[in-house]
Amino acid sequence: MIDLYPRESWNFVFGQASLSKGMGVFSFARYDDDFYSKTYAGKLKKSLHPKQGDYSLFDGYYTPPITSTLLLRSCKTLTHEIGHIFGLKHCQWLNCVMQGSNHLEESDRRPLDLCPICLRKLQTVVGFHIGERYK
């Protein structure tokens, strides 16, 4: 697994998505319990700028053990980034999966679901019936 740095000036991101491009990316690297150790196998010492379509530098790369904690953290990030693809911004109102996070503990505190405000925003964009959806 590899950590994500969208800009040289950023420390990292758990994930990033683009509404206009309809795609997103996220990394499980910081969700591995060993990530913060000095010997973590997934850390890179230099920036990677491979040629387009050349993914050979990732061959044989480190994959951590899949734990329930890693899966829960990954589901939260995936749900959050999909929310961005549907046009949802970071939530500032209630406890919600669309809240931003700057560190692992903050990310762990987020629930896996949307708050009522963000659920309504998603309903408006997608056009589903909330009552039917939750029967």
TrEMBL record:
Keyword field: Hydrolase, Metal-binding, Metalloprotease, Protease, Zinc
Cofactor: Zn(2+)
GO molecular function, one term: metal ion binding
Pfam families: Peptidase_M54
Cleaved signal peptide residues: none
Organism domain of life: Eukaryota
InterPro entries: Archaemetzincin, MetalloPept_cat_dom_sf, Pept_M54_archaemetzincn
Entry function: Probable zinc metalloprotease.
UniProt family annotation: Belongs to the peptidase M54 family.
Protein name, entry field: Archaemetzincin-2
Organism phylogeny: Eukaryota, Metazoa, Chordata, Craniata, Vertebrata
